[in-house]
């Protein structure tokens, strides 16, 4: 999956065109039927193929699994001429009252993994974005391309590459043993550690991009002013740089956190039996147990958890857009 | 002093970052030339696994499907993205605009398992009415890919659209060009770089998508990422190394050309500015000459 | 000229539009503001009206951008809409070009209704503030663009483009792209492009807006020369009064969607019809007064700030005791150490400050009641005569005809 990579092409563009000519945006022009005809195609497409599917899984999540085609009970039945609507809430109740608590634990674990990975991405990504934003323009172009390029290669291949170097006889163990830090190879694959590494590695560019564009817009005279007024670098960083790049930090975090919460491929390939994240549960319920209603219910709950961060992200995006409109 | 320090800091940071990003990929490439079946033990350099790769008809089939879907997806999502971007920038604040913006932003962040499941359920439900959807072949995959790629193309094209000077469109109209002519003669050339970027972007994303495709695809339409995934799940295989090397090579070539065009554009802008400055100087001389008379 | 008692738009008779025996346009090469005194109005010159705007109104959601504006444009004149930003001048221009649809009213071009006609079918062309040259086309392609839309034969297009290039002196830059041109050259290309289609009316939106200050002054007259040599009727929008005064034959001052005054450059400067115009064009000293007496040859006023009366040599059509405002341009106030002999039209104060501007100096004189009055003096005189300096006691005086009485 390559979610997010150019969520932020817009960020890149904004960043690169720091001294863009001011655009003259007049008031929205008079709306005609032609405009409505234009909007119709993308609008209908998104409603039909994006909004409608969610209504459908919500519907299916209220039915129960059956051995039939399709493998779930119908919501509306006609018996003796009367219409019957049966809503099953079993899927939801079973998720919460499950005996060994698998579902509940996996939601918590997913939140933990996504949250920590986001933090790692932020800690690693911020210095990278800073280094990119403050170097010479000619070098910046090259380095920027180099930082993004891995995300254009295949996602599965990138995870595969970590499988090869984290193996028992892989590069990392070889090096560690060569230096003499450890005597026998450590088990890295099939652990949570590998999952964190994998997610951090794969999602790092989506963190770097918005941070980079935010750092490009930073008014460095404020930092000089902070130094001038006697603040030490650490204090300056928290006083001046962090507040100025807040929107980039939030956007980047959302771009990592939201998709990471439902990540399936990374825990499947790098994680062990313990790394039961919610994405894996959903996949198993769907493909292995063929319990479509339960899988739908799992998805709906995940969606509910994600509503807040998604709306937050959406608001940040809109604010950025409005800002761009405002600067005539 | 401080400047020097920060330069060293930058170099160290970027060196570490690039090592982190490229070391695993580099190892993949190196071991793709290894003769041994063991991915981690080096025996002898050979192109054996490339030969294996090219004689694998299954991979060939998957590549063909992936390329077809990716090409169709890129075309359609560029069209949809252009329309959406046009409307978002030029029409703005129409009825149901916020819903539209939400619908076009959400696919970028939503976990793919959810999108994939939801789309599959849609196709199954539609399949009850129109059997064609139940088939879940290339076209179903195409629809799913266009849906999430359109979100990205919209973002890319919209940001270019916003930079366009609306008075250029008005000028064309003022000079007698109708709306359609204005689009093709004035707007399209101006947003062409974004259109190309959006095309390449959705092409790569469609090529690369695994999770959504796994939900949608029927038994006969296995795409390349699905094939790689199932083979990786079975264990490490040098053939995948060879495949990965080829993918990295292709992407690097494209990246190189993207960088080249960027540099060229900067050079052209610099030379244009120099020409303009020279013209301005000439004009100033002319004006002082005039005033002397 | 007496003052118009009210702030109203011009009320020229529109009847002349039926008159087809049009007199040829004024002489090419004429410079606005050159004629002594007030020019004859276009109707007196017997010019043919070309564009008639009647009661036009444009409302945006929250406010009215243009409010019941009437205007008649005559064949061959250069007309300027002058106003600060947001006064509705650009909206008016955009309605003429067809980019905005008026809420009500009508626009007649040669007697035919323009409203409802899309911009690409109107026989008017616009030169945009940013020039809006097509960045992917050469100078030649830019100029030819409009002609190509008319599907003219190739040879004819070539010929017309050549003519235009010659007109704006751009023959040497035919194959350049807009980004490779200087600001002045871009402007000339934009002008050529909008003139190529031989529009009935040329619309100029802030024609000098994108140029730097030095180039502006030079381009003003050059632009007027080109426009006059073609003889096209021209409507321009500007916020720069100098620009309007150098370029236009007639000027309309606009405020909050309405015309405040319409007239020649000299008329609006010398005879503003209200406080707004007086303050908008040039700088002015305004004094609140009360009318004491008025007859056919003389009016006497008492200003709150002065010890002496103000005398005007004409009649003011107001009842005695009514308040009004007197406007005095700084360059029309004399400054001197000696006490004037007359009984009226002078006051006394202390030089508070002097601003040296190179060609002139501005004196800031504080009157007894604290009020500051400005007076300008050419520096040629200032240093020759050893005129007042800081903290000097001075007398300010003026001629009776310099006073402009304003009722609003």
UniProtKB/TrEMBL annotation, chain A:
Membrane topology: Multi-pass membrane protein
Family matches, as InterPro entries: MetI-like, MetI-like_sf
Compartmental location: Cell membrane
One annotated GO biological process: transmembrane transport
Pfam family membership, one: BPD_transp_1
Keywords carried by this UniProt record: Cell membrane, Membrane, Transmembrane, Transmembrane helix, Transport
Organism from which the protein derives: Succinatimonas hippei (strain DSM 22608 / JCM 16073 / KCTC 15190 / YIT 12066)
Entry-linked Gene3D superfamilies: MetI-like
Protein name stated in the entry: ABC transporter, permease protein
One annotated Gene Ontology cellular component of this protein: plasma membrane
TM helices/strands, residue ranges: 36-58, 113-133, 139-160, 193-212, 292-314
Family according to the record: Belongs to the binding-protein-dependent transport system permease family. CysTW subfamily.
Start and end residues of each ABC transmembrane type-1 domain: 107-313
